[in-house]
Amino acid sequence: MSVCHNVMNISCVGSNWSSDVRASLYSLMVLIILTTLVGNLMVVISISHFKQLHTPTNCLLRSMATVDFLLGCLVMPYSMVRSVEHYWYFGEIFCKIHTSTDIMLSSASIFHLSFISIDRYYAVCDPLRYKARMSLLVIFVMIFISWSVPAVFAFGMIFLELNFKGAEEIYYKHIHCRGGCTVFFSKITGVLVFMISFYIPGSVMLCVYCRIYFIAKEQAKSIKGTNPKLQTGLEVKNGILQSKERKAATTLGLLLGVFLICWCPFFVSTVMDPFLNYLVPLTLNEALIWFGYLNSTLNPMVYAFFYPWFRKALKTILIGKIFRKDSSRCKIFLDSNP
């Protein structure tokens, strides 16, 4: 059924910020974009180039870094112009493509974080059966789900205009304008996006982190309660395992914290806004979106801080050793598991 709306030709009101404010915003956003691109590109190059890093876990890390790189390359630059100018210069069809890609890549990044937490859970809590449980095939299935489910969900919802379902009149009368590209959700789709893209993967990450944390504490208590004559031997035997447990718990905790800090405000706003009659200001909504983008910017920094193999690979790339013959066989770490 075709519906005609009298307000569809009304132009959106552009930004009234001064040139200094716009220049500052553009500078900040360009810095975020470049940091996102460089950081995630380094992760992709490191894992792809060095053969010692060709592990199932790192395939998952590389896939997530690819998602974050594409977010910085394909989505953030256009979002930057929209956020600063409060106007969309790139046409209605490209608006749908941009919005779909934005939702897809943001959700895919979150899905990867969730699957990485599951991988680390089995590595720490069931190390003897880890290789059997987390085979290359299982990792590829995780990667496929992380890409395909957000893609079908995002493009299907936006191009079929399911995000307007139940709120068409509100959107066309009060939100829609020529030159606008607003990410709009009805009550139903707002809750659906919140559940699929944030609550479910976030809950998985939280549960896994808590489980690893308590297992690490139980291990430490069991070592302390051991017979003093046997304690030294057990400490030596379990030292590496405990170190990995602590590192996994700390890394996952930081990833979870960064994820929650960056994305929680946006998704809470998204799910609440339809129930508040869309009172969230455009400027605030754009700020929350960029706060979410920061998750993709900060992920490589977490790797650089906690993973020695990434720091060594990064150093090798930056000083040009990567161009030497057989550099792909360079020893990045001594332990068999990075």
From TrEMBL:
<keyword id="KW-1133">Transmembrane helix</keyword>
<dbReference type="GO" id="GO:0001594">
    <property type="term" value="F:trace-amine receptor activity"/>
</dbReference>
<keyword id="KW-0256">Endoplasmic reticulum</keyword>
<feature type="transmembrane region" description="Helical">
    <location>
        <begin position="59"/>
        <end position="80"/>
    </location>
</feature>
<dbReference type="GO" id="GO:0007200">
    <property type="term" value="P:phospholipase C-activating G protein-coupled receptor signaling pathway"/>
</dbReference>
<dbReference type="InterPro" id="IPR009133">
    <property type="entry name" value="TAAR1"/>
</dbReference>
<feature type="transmembrane region" description="Helical">
    <location>
        <begin position="248"/>
        <end position="268"/>
    </location>
</feature>
<protein>
    <recommendedName>
        <fullName>Trace amine-associated receptor 1</fullName>
    </recommendedName>
</protein>
<keyword id="KW-0807">Transducer</keyword>
<dbReference type="GO" id="GO:0005789">
    <property type="term" value="C:endoplasmic reticulum membrane"/>
</dbReference>
<comment type="similarity">
    <text>Belongs to the G-protein coupled receptor 1 family.</text>
</comment>
<keyword id="KW-0325">Glycoprotein</keyword>
<dbReference type="InterPro" id="IPR009132">
    <property type="entry name" value="TAAR_fam"/>
</dbReference>
<dbReference type="InterPro" id="IPR000276">
    <property type="entry name" value="GPCR_Rhodpsn"/>
</dbReference>
<keyword id="KW-0812">Transmembrane</keyword>
<dbReference type="GO" id="GO:0005886">
    <property type="term" value="C:plasma membrane"/>
</dbReference>
<feature type="domain" description="G-protein coupled receptors family 1 profile">
    <location>
        <begin position="39"/>
        <end position="303"/>
    </location>
</feature>
<dbReference type="GO" id="GO:0007193">
    <property type="term" value="P:adenylate cyclase-inhibiting G protein-coupled receptor signaling pathway"/>
</dbReference>
<keyword id="KW-0297">G-protein coupled receptor</keyword>
<keyword id="KW-1015">Disulfide bond</keyword>
<feature type="transmembrane region" description="Helical">
    <location>
        <begin position="288"/>
        <end position="310"/>
    </location>
</feature>
<dbReference type="InterPro" id="IPR050569">
    <property type="entry name" value="TAAR"/>
</dbReference>
<feature type="transmembrane region" description="Helical">
    <location>
        <begin position="25"/>
        <end position="47"/>
    </location>
</feature>
<dbReference type="GO" id="GO:0007189">
    <property type="term" value="P:adenylate cyclase-activating G protein-coupled receptor signaling pathway"/>
</dbReference>
<keyword id="KW-0675">Receptor</keyword>
<dbReference type="Pfam" id="PF00001">
    <property type="entry name" value="7tm_1"/>
</dbReference>
<feature type="transmembrane region" description="Helical">
    <location>
        <begin position="103"/>
        <end position="122"/>
    </location>
</feature>
<feature type="transmembrane region" description="Helical">
    <location>
        <begin position="134"/>
        <end position="160"/>
    </location>
</feature>
<keyword id="KW-1003">Cell membrane</keyword>
<feature type="transmembrane region" description="Helical">
    <location>
        <begin position="192"/>
        <end position="214"/>
    </location>
</feature>
<dbReference type="InterPro" id="IPR017452">
    <property type="entry name" value="GPCR_Rhodpsn_7TM"/>
</dbReference>
<keyword id="KW-0472">Membrane</keyword>
